[in-house]
Structure formats: C-alpha cells, structure tokens
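Problem 12. The chain below contains 181 residues. Write out its predicted structure in token notation.
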Amino acid sequence: MAEAAPTEPADQAPEAAPAASPGQAPGPTASPGPGPAPHAVAWPGPVRRLTVLYDAGCPLCVHLRGWLQRQRQLVPLDLVPAGSAEARRRFPELDHAATLQEITVVGDLGQVYRETAAWIVCLWALAKYRARAHWLTTPAGRPFARGTVLAAARYRSMAVPPCAPGSRECAAPPGGGWGPR
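Solution.
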C-alpha cells in the first residue's frame, strides 16, 4: 500500500494543484514505494472509492460518520470502524492502533491519508464540499483546516466520554444548530 506522501510537514494539509482533473483527489501525490515520494511524482490515476476508518467508540466520530453517509458522494465512501476485523482484513499492513487515534482514509489505489489530509479528502469526495476541499489545500485554507481538526481532536479527548465497551451503538453528540435538518 503506497503511503500518500505529503509535501508539507505531517501536521499540515497537503497542497493540491489549483485545478485537479476529475476523479483526482486533492492533496499529496502517491508514493510508488517505501519512503517519501519525490516532490513531483505523477498521480497513479483517478480515485474511484475511499475507505474511511473511524473510531466507532467515539460519539463525535460516529456522528460525523452519519453526516458523511447523508451527503451526496461524488466518490463513494466506505465507512469502516477502525481496528475492526473488517479494517484488518482490508488493510493488514496498516498500524490499526494508530487508526484509532486519528482518522485514516485509504484510497482504492492504496493512497493513505491521515489527520488533516484525511478530512480534506473526505470533503473532496462530497458534491457540496469539493470546492471547499480544494480551498483547504491552499495556503489560505491550510490553517483553517488544521485548526478545525485540532479543535475536533480536543473536543473528542476532553468533552466526549468514550462509548461503553460492548455497547451495540454509540450515541452521537447532540447536533444543536449544526445537526441534520
């Protein structure tokens, strides 16, 4: 599985070309092998499907999974609990403990997106948010994207207790004014 190699430090969103071809995800170029990719590696082809590994024991993550499912998708999203038997079957070479700590998205050609880049590629897959995803990869959008991901991580770690072990469902946090209408 090729790790999507960021052109920025790991804590920043990758930068995309201003006009990506249809079916081409914004963000890093895929690495053809182990180690970091050169700065100008060609994209391996169009992204046709993305697998989102989310923490099923986190109410915020479960809420966002439901939100992603309700959106019109230009690129299909498979939402799979991180660390589950299904995730391990699909991606045996991933560090599954790490996928429980931070959102991880895997493209159908083996691209791996983590942290901010994972959120951006999820937005890119959605009809209503594709243009916003491209903006989030620009120098103007990058700080906003990173700040949003850090705020969500802080909320997740401090304000939301984990779901009870063995519970069949994890309750989503109240949506308030941001919930589905």
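Discussion. The longest strand covers residues 50-54. Students who got a different answer should revisit the alignment rule from Section 12.3.
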